[in-house]
Amino acid sequence: MAVNAPDSAADPTRLAFSSANAATQNLANETQERFLTLLVTQLQNQDPLNPMDNAEVTSQIAQLSTVNGITQLNNTLLALSGQIDVSQSMQAAALIGKGVLVPGEKIKLGSDPDDPSIRESTPFGVDLMSGASKIVVTIVDSNGKAVRDIELDPQENAGVLSLDWDGKDNNGMDVPDGAYRIKVKASDAEGEEVAAETLTYGKVGSVAYTAEGLRLDLGLAGPVSLLDIRKVM
In Å, what is the CA distance from 95 to each residue of 20, 87, 90, 109, 229? Predict the structure, then answer.
């Protein structure tokens, strides 16, 4: 099967580099022309009894090289920044329609529309900053009352743990459908607290470009940054 080569004219990355290189070359040429014009004028109008020192001419040429180098560096950084923006945009667009875990504590409990006897919460998770020997996730209701404690297996390494809830309290009884919150406490073998963050679920509905940068719309979970995503479901 033949594979068509990508059209370089339509490649945003190539266009970014091409534009930056062209801008750099034009600016360098203009700067050199202005410098040479000033230098020639200065040499033509110098005092014959007090000519310009060779060291001064060398110093000015060195300054010109430094300015050109800084200009080229700045344009290269701008091109790289544009490449990163294009890459992030492509990643974000590929996430539309997918579920993700992001920092947050909200979960929702409800019944399966096709089978009301099945009750489950929206997915949620925990982001461990390091290994932990004891991890307890607590689910609280809208009044702040703890309804369920879930103790997880010890984890040797840092990472994201995906969880779900069957809608039962600590006594095995069903709790009402609705909105709940999650909390987490983790500790190591010596009982020292381990940093951990709760994660909430959202489905990427759209991508927007705002003053704060690239944002993903997760519906009820609100807009988040691409960097906030901890896991793609």
Answer: 30, 13, 9, 25, 10
**Domain containing 149: what range?**
99-202
Of 180, 174, 181, 187, residue with least CA distance to 131: 187
Buried b (16+ CB within 10 A) or exposed e, 168-183: eeeeeeebeeeebbbe
- Per-residue pLDDT band for 127 (boundaries 50, 70, 90) equals very high
Q: Which has the minimum average pLDDT: 30-44, 105-119, 152-166? A: 30-44
CA distance linking residue 135 with residue 44, whole number of Å? 81
Alpha-carbon distances of 155 from 102, 182, 186, 194, 196, rounded to whole Å: 20, 19, 10, 11, 12
Q: How far apart are the first and last CA of the chain?
A: 33
The domain spanning residue 103 has which CATH number?
2.60.40.4070
DSSP, res 110: E
Total domains in the chain come to 2
Per the listing, tokens 């875990």 go with 101
* DSSP H stretches of helix in 185-230: none
Give me Rg for the CA atoms of the chain. 30
DSSP state of 172: S
Q: How far apart are CA 103 and CA 122, in angstroms?
A: 14
Pairing of strands 196-203, 124-128: antiparallel
- Are 216 and 226 a contacting pair, CB within 8 Å? yes
